[in-house]
Amino acid sequence: MTSDAPLTGLVVCLDDVDVDELVGAVEVLVQEGFRNFALAAGSEALGETIEIFAARARFGAHGVRSTQDLARLVAAGGSFAFVDLPEADAVAAAREAGVPVWVQAMTPTEVRGVLELGADGAMLFPADVVGHAMAKHLETLSLADRVVPRGGVGAFAAGEWLKAGAPAVCVDQTLLGDALSGGDLGALRDRCSSFIQVQVREEKAAKARAAKMERARARAEREAARAAERAAQEAEKAAAAGPPEAVAPQDADAVVAERPDAVAAEQE
Fold this sequence. Notes:
This protein has about 270 residues and is of the alpha/beta class.
């Protein structure tokens, strides 16, 4: 599932394992409602995994470190990239290929530096070191909507990041557990529930925000239309009334001639 839509919601970051291990886990995750996945950029299973699930999910890569990694991702049908190194060449190559790119950063200063490179945003890693409290700080700095956190993010923390304005949140071991190393896929299915609840809640909140913005836009358009109508009515009235009659000025001698008694009284 390739898409030009912005990357939103939860993104499952998968380890570099054999395709046989990936397929079972990804199948469970797709069935449970996950739609965004990031594979290891150097994984031999990159192309095959994307081919298997391309019609049902969106794939990108994490750990991108070179333009070669990026080219391989694009050739496999990947549609977004998490880049480890803040290098202008990688960002430029991603932009040229039409692939949204998030570059690793940790502090607000590093986030701004990544944005100056032309990246779509910053991948804050490791997010569990700073905790979800960082989300509010970045929101205060008007940066939260350009940051995707990754690394040790649990369901509650994911919800807090999304509430603060992060467009997407990466989840990994807190969700996957040992599912990619022969673990119980039934247990993986059970762990999905709390994460999917977060995603569904945020989707509803996003729809509510969009509806509120649409109502505000429609209200503003109605007010503008009413103002334009009132202005047109006033213009029509003014045009119907015609120009005001000019009143010729009178000199003092004319006033005396017309009203001699009144002038005399004023002088007394």
